[in-house]
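INTERNAL AUDIT FORM
Audit reference: QA-55
Scope: verify that the stored structure record matches its stored sequence.
Auditor: D.O.
Record contents follow.
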Amino acid sequence: MGVNTLINVINLGLLSSLVITFVKIYRSSKANFTLGLIFFSGLLMTNSIISVYSYVTMSMLFSDLLAPYLLAISIAELAGLSVFLKITLE
């Protein structure tokens, strides 16, 4: 579960970068679409915060059989957020 926690913390960093970037874009453009992206990124941040909290406080309740699946989900999210941030910054 330590790896899952680390990946979700990295996801939080990527999401924070996305929110900061979208807020800067919104300030200059006032586009409603950007507000939607800020909201979407905020919800994903909430998900990552809850995931990190659950891994830290309730890891003893998770079966070891779940770890590979949770890791795959976290890695998929990391890949998606990395691409999303790269595209946003271009």
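Auditor finding: record pair retrieved intact. The radius of gyration is 15 Å.
Action required: none
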